[in-house]
């Protein structure tokens, strides 16, 4: 029976991860700032992960077989965790993101990706792109850059002479769950197509990677029990582009999708991309995880979202 600490995990696939770990027989503890209580049978520690002294005090003498870090967004948070959990865990799993591969936020001299992009294509330790090179509108591009760069630099902190076996799970875009999918990105399509409003798309959009929220929870639970280290991509099979996504939504709603092509550099709807960075899931598959297919679960996720927004 493993002793597992989940940092964060108070919403979406993090909640499903916690119950899966518990039901598999692990002793699970959640560490958060008190935003929500854990489910029955799960322990709880209250601490602000940015407060190193407070985090050490909350942990006291506890150690864990595995730590799953759901909410590491910056290199400073990674550095605190690296120091605090050295000698306290036999395995550290950080939930990262496919946005670390986004060519729009990578250093200006970065070589083009081979698509689908594999884990070894990225060196998280490379210097960041100058902020003035961000494409698109300043506010959205700046936020995207900050998020991706924060995750890349957090990975780099953990990968530099790691004090424990370390995994960074680079998640595809997570969908499904109806109202639980708090970003509202799938709801954007359901609402617009249902109302006959055009969806803003790029002239030649690229495909991207997705994963169902329950599959994401299963993948993290599986990863916690493995021994491999380093980065690993987590994505269902298939990389539909925004036009294919619109068609799936339209078929579920019994409507005809409408599109409006945006000018180069202008904002488009979520998941419309003018650059390629769909992920290769071959490493995880070779290690033994069986992924589903986007085409199989996406219609159900759309129907679930449609019911939640009705």
Structure description:
It is a single chain. The chain is built from nine helices and eleven strands. The strands form three sheets. The chain has a seven-stranded parallel β-sheet, sandwiched between helices. A two-stranded parallel sheet has the order 7-9. Strands 8-11 form a two-stranded parallel ribbon. The protein is an alpha/beta fold. It has helices spanning 13-23, 52-59, 75-85, 138-159, 185-195, 213-224, 242-253, 282-287, 294-309, and strands at 3-7, 27-32, 43-46, 66-69, 92-97, 166-171, 173-175, 199-201, 210-212, 230-234, 259-261.
In short:
The protein is α/β, with parallel strands linked by helices and 310 residues long.
Strand content: 15-25%
What characteristic shape results from the CA principal axes? globular
Quaternary organisation: single chain
Overall mean confidence score, pLDDT:
92
Number of β-strand runs: 11
Q: Give a short account of the largest sheet.
A: 7 strands, parallel
Count of runs of 4 or more consecutive helical residues: 9
* Cα-to-Cα separation, first versus last residue: 43 Å
Secondary-structure map:
Layout (H helix, E strand, L loop, with lengths): L2 E5 L5 H11 L3 E6 L10 E4 L5 H8 L6 E4 L5 H11 L6 E6 L40 H22 L6 E6 L1 E3 L9 H11 L3 E3 L8 E3 H12 L5 E5 L7 H12 L5 E3 L20 H6 L6 H16 L1
Helix pairs in contact: 1-6, 3-4, 5-7, 5-9, 7-9
